[in-house]
Amino acid sequence: MWLIAPDDAHAPRDRQRAADLGLEPVQRVPDQGFYLARDESGLALRYAPDTAGSGLRCALADSAGLANRQAGGRRSPLARAFGLHRHPPMRILDATAGLARDAATLAGLGCDVTALERQPALYALIADATQRIDESPSAPAWWPHWQPPVYADARSWLAARSGDAAFDAIYIDPMFASPRRKSAPQKALAWLAELAGADDDAPEVLDIARQQAMRRVVVKQHARATPIAPPDLQVRGRAIRFDIYLTPGA
Ligand SMILES: C[S@@+](CC[C@H](N)C(=O)[O-])C[C@H]1O[C@@H](n2cnc3c(N)ncnc32)[C@H](O)[C@@H]1O
Fold first, then answer.
1. What span, in angstroms and rounded, lies between the C-alpha atoms of 158 and 12?
2. Whether residues 65 and 49 fall in one domain
3. pLDDT for 159-183, tens place per residue?
4. Is 189 touching ligand 1 by the criterion CB < 6 Å?
5. Count of the separate structural domains present in the chain
6. Ligand 1 within 6 A of 69 CB?
7. I need a surface site. Which of 47, 99, 110, 188 has the fewest CB within 10 A?
8. Whether residues 70 and 40 fall in one domain
């Protein structure tokens, strides 16, 4: 659902995007469930009747949070999983972009990042935040690394591009089973999990990603989760782990 106020300057564009994504345009807050709404900071995902907080937003729309993540630099577990502490920036497909926190962090490290997402409301958040920065006179220095986002299922999109060698690395961050929690970041995760559902197709995404990535596939996992397939390398963070699958001969 997309809450579109008819007198909002963005209404025609929002209506078009809602139609493109198959999201129902509504003119009042629904009694129950997820909906997208626009305010002065852009598009947010909200959950009725829970009106507290400012909703979930794409990481591109949160410059302070993003600066914090990017400050982790090339020694962060995410950067090390891509080998960025040793090798130059690369072309990365984030095949499960979600709120684009990891994708934006990698772009901030100088990688050319394409964010792909199949959940329409989440894709709308990414597309809207991208458009706002594109149209802003003060885009961040790393913005040239941010590629147009893609609305698709990673499996069919990658299969259709078979052999085009467009990405050095492909990133997969499947949804962890996430209990409902109260603190802000964990609440965001619980919302994401409810909206996007379980990512049971992660093994299939990994299979096809391994055929397409020129250098490596990186899978984010819970620290104690069983790997989807035996990895070549692992990078461990506090609560998470990155399983790395190297492309033979790369
Ligand atoms: C845990 S979230 C990713 C969070 C993200 N790394 C971030 O930093 O915000 C997983 C996301 O992957 C998406 N997803 C899972 N499987 C997918 C697929 N086959 N194709 C496209 N998107 C997929 C889900 O819709 C969900 O939004």
1. 32
2. no
3. 999 888 899 999 999 986 654 445 5
4. no
5. 2
6. no
7. 110
8. no
